[in-house]
């Protein structure tokens, strides 16, 4: 079984203190940092872009797990690679040619993630799974932190796990949206090995980041 990793989303962090917040996550045992990039077009919210990622990268040696919710994504991939993203995750709906966007990320020597919205079917990416390092299953409709977990997406995780075994592939399965201490166990049991969490990590237990990361990993 793959090791369970926690990727805290800085969407719920204090944006006036992002450098410190990232240091706290590192001390608290986070395995990577999840950066939600939103463009106010692919999703109805606007967050941060390459200059902020570049500045934060100087504050930490952690893996930057960059989730691009921007469309059209292709022409911006290089900017995020140069800013310091280690994993670049894109949505199939945000590119005209998923294959060339995947190849572009690989050419830049970054790990490739592809994300499926709650309504997006696995068929959309089955032909590409042999080139993908990570599949990000959205358990909320992307756009905002603090939304309610949608358990109906767990079936896709189970299915992906089966495909991975059958085809002898090795991609990670990450889940993103509404993860808390009550549902992290089912997500892990279904087959997710990377849990993204914003609200639970930054707001539960009076913001005790270390405790919240430990609890998510072990529940
Ligand atoms: C949603 C983002 C998330 C999400 C995580 O569009 O991709 O990463 O905000 O935050 P919580 O854990 O609060 O759902
Ligand atoms: Zn995300």
Task: Please characterize this protein's 3D structure.
- The chain is globular.
- Strands 1-8-7-6-5-4-3-2 form an 8-stranded parallel sheet.
- The protein has 219 residues and is an alpha/beta fold.
- Helix 2 packs parallel to helix 3.
- It has a single domain, classed as TIM Barrel (Alpha-Beta Barrel), CATH 3.20.20.70.
- It has 8 helices and 8 strands; from the N terminus they run βαβαβαβαββαβαβαα.
- Zinc ion binds next to strand 2.
Topology summary:
Elements: E1 5-8, H1 18-27, E2 32-38, H2 50-57, E3 63-69, H3 77-83, E4 87-90, H4 98-107, E5 111-116, E6 134-138, H5 154-166, E7 172-176, H6 184-190, E8 194-197, H7 199-203, H8 209-218
Parallel strand pairs: 1-8, 2-3, 3-4, 4-5, 5-6, 6-7, 7-8
Helix pairs in contact: 2-3
The structure holds D-xylitol-5-phosphate and zinc ion.
Search tags:
219 residues, alpha/beta, TIM Barrel, eight-stranded parallel sheet, 8 helices, 32% helix, globular, binds D-xylitol-5-phosphate, binds zinc ion
Into how many domains do the coordinates divide?
A: 1
For the termini, the CA-CA separation is 16 Å
Rg: 16 Å
What's the architecture, going by CATH? Alpha-Beta Barrel
Number of strands: 8
Query: Beta-sheet strand percentage?
Result: 15-25%
Overall 3D form:
globular
């Amino acid at each position: 079984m793959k090791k369970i990793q926690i990727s805290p989303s800085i969407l719920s962090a204090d944006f006036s203190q992002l450098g410190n917040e990232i240091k706290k996550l590192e001390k608290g045992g986070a395995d990577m940092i999840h950066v939600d990039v939103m463009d106010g077009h692919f999703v109805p919210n606007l967050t941060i872009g390459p200059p902020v990622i570049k500045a934060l990268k100087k504050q930490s040696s952690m893996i930057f797990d960059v989730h691009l919710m921007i469309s059209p994504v292709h022409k911006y991939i290089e900017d995020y690679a140069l800013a310091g993203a280690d994993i670049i995750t894109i949505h199939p709906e945000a590119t005209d040619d998923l294959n060339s966007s995947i190849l572009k990320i690989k050419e830049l020597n970054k790990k490739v993630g592809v994300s499926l919205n709650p309504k997006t079917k696995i068929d959309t990416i089955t032909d590409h799974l042999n080139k993908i390092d990570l599949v990000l299953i959205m358990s909320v409709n992307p756009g905002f932190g603090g939304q309610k977990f949608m358990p109906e997406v767990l079936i896709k995780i189970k299915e992906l796990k089966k495909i991975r075994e059958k085809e002898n592939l090795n991609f990670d399965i990450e889940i993103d949206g509404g993860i808390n201490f009550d549902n992290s166990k089912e997500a892990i049991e279904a087959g997710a090995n990377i849990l993204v969490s914003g609200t639970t990590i930054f707001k539960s237990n009076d913001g005790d980041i270390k405790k919240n990361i430990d609890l998510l990993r072990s529940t």
